[in-house]
Amino acid sequence: MDVPEVRxxxxxxxxxxxxxxxxxxxASPSVDARALIARAAGTEGPLVMLDDLPAQFGARLEExxxxxxxxxxxxxxxxxxxxxxxxxxxxxxxxxxxxxxxLALDLLRERSExxxxxxxxxxxxxxxxxxxxxxxxxxxxxxAVEIDADAAALTAENLELAGRGRxxxxxxxxxxxxxxxxxxxxxxxxxxxxxxxxxxxxPRELEVIEHDPHRALFGGGADGLEVPRAVIAWAAVLLRxxxxxxxxxxxxxxxxxxxxxxxxxxFDRIETAPDLTGRDRFLLARRVPGAPAHGDExxxx
Length: 301
Prior knowledge:
Elements: H1 3-23, H2 29-41, H3 57-69, H4 74-78, E1 80-83, E2 86-89, H5 103-111, E3 118-122, H6 128-136, E4 141-146, H7 149-163, E5 167-171, H8 179-182, E6 187-192, H9 206-211, H10 226-238, E7 239-248, H11 254-264, E8 267-274, E9 280-287
Parallel strand pairs: 3-4, 3-6, 4-5, 6-7
Antiparallel strand pairs: 1-2, 7-9, 8-9
Helix pairs in contact: 1-2, 2-3, 6-7, 10-11
């Protein structure tokens, strides 16, 4: 196939794939179509640079397009997800990181006082937050905690790719006693994107409800804040005086998470930070300088 024929086939494939994805209700049909075509063509570079197409291009593109038409997330189809400066490995059964979570790293830099030598990523999922810390803060070391075995294994891979030995993973349930985690204190900062959806709330997006693990979505309890409250309790145990907690939550949970931190005690500068769309998204709290750790008795709640 000569170059002009390649160009014609790519244009036709892009138009047809974009149309099919749009008709299937995919939110970004053109962007996704280009990604699927690149995968089918076996290239990581711009499509305009292709001079030839593999023999199985058509069959491969059809397979990928059908998967996306069924609303399988693009990240799972490609096996990777962009997150800040990284391309994270992604596998089925592990929560797919969202763009809004990226802001947590900016908040960490803005709100931290003193060094960021030790950071804990609670409810790590794919390890997106911890891996980004390792990538962007060269002297930092990260402990990532994740309850699910498959997610913990993927976190370990992403931490190693980003940090080359500066990250480690602990598989544990934050709602119980975890001596190995308690032994990590004191740390400089805690980042967390825990499950927080209430049990009676059902996500509308097919990509979410059918492909994200429910353990990573539903936070427990009527308000969905059982796991987030455990994160807050661990922050009181782990943070050094002046250390910061940055925890993601739903846009309707700002007041509730601030109240949980205030009720627990041991924190000041408790506030809510918005995401880039202006919606409440992150609980910010500083460990009170000089306050004793007293959250242990609430860790099992």
